[in-house]
Amino acid sequence: MKAFSYLTTKGEPRIGVQTPEGLLNFTQLWGYFKELKNFPRAPELPFLQLMVELDYFSEETFAEVIAAVREYRSLDDIIIREPFSWQLPVQRPTKILCLGRNYRAHAAELNNTVPEAPMYFAKVPSSLLPHQGHIRIPAGVGRVDHELELALVIGKRGANIPESKAMEHVAGYTIANDITAREMQREEQKKGKPWTLAKGMDTFCPLGPWLVPAGSVADPHNLTLELKVDGEVRQKGSTADMVYGIPELIAYISRYMTLEPGDLLLTGTPEGVGPIQPGNRIEGSIDGLGTLENGVVQAGSD
Ligand code: MG
Hints:
The protein contains eight helices and 19 strands. By secondary structure, it is an alpha+beta fold. The chain folds into two domains: 2-86, no CATH class; 88-298, Fumarylacetoacetase-like, C-terminal domain (Fumarylacetoacetate hydrolase, domain 2), CATH 3.90.850. The strands form four sheets. Strands 6-5-16-10-11-13-7 form a seven-stranded mixed sheet. It has a five-stranded mixed sheet with strand order 8-19-18-14-15, with no helix packed on it. A four-stranded antiparallel sheet has the order 3-2-1-4. Strand 14 and strand 15 (232-238) form a beta hairpin. Helix 1 (26-37) crosses helix 3. The mean pLDDT is 96. Magnesium ion is lined by residues 98, 147, 149, 178, 268-269.
């Protein structure tokens, strides 16, 4: 089961869901379901993040709603046939928490050692970019790298979450590209400065296309990641090689920061990071989560 947020050609926000019949307009399905079950006061569901915040985002909800509506009417007019534009799976997280050096081979390729505790930094929400959007590289920033990462979306608020309960706080998974102005980051590091700018520019956090409910991912610690630039494989790894797994990451950060529904956690990148250039086409794939595609342009040129 895979879900996504999209805009119709009229600019209306919708949730879509992939089924054997095709892509279905889940916002419309939900409307029929409310009518059928006599839930007139239940909210409309135009965005995935709202579904996550209401704790409705699960494989079970999608399956129940589709089955109930199918019983009393055809799904034919609910199939998405018009063109649409992909939107972010979550559009306004309170924070985007990211891991540095969470894969040994990647730490080594940048001459870094593996940290003694999870090494967190943050990206800013305004850096988010949907599937098929263009990464915009400002003039004069030097080398800019791709970093393909498994991202998870928090579904349940929590602080001081024990490792044993951590997975209950994950609503679902998606794909992120932690775009990094590498030269600028190195300069900042040398001067003992933070990396906020190198990691946080507009469009430097491509995310999507799908949000897959946690229940649909059998083992998030055994997924192959692969990133291609213009069709050539640059990164290939497995989430099995993460230094700190998801329960440890959630337990650690939630000692210091309350996790909110819709928050994003980027779990780090495997080896093979490298530069991107205007004109490149970047495709990041993770088992069962689809492929996140983005072009690259010089800022100011589109
Ligand atoms: Mg990264």
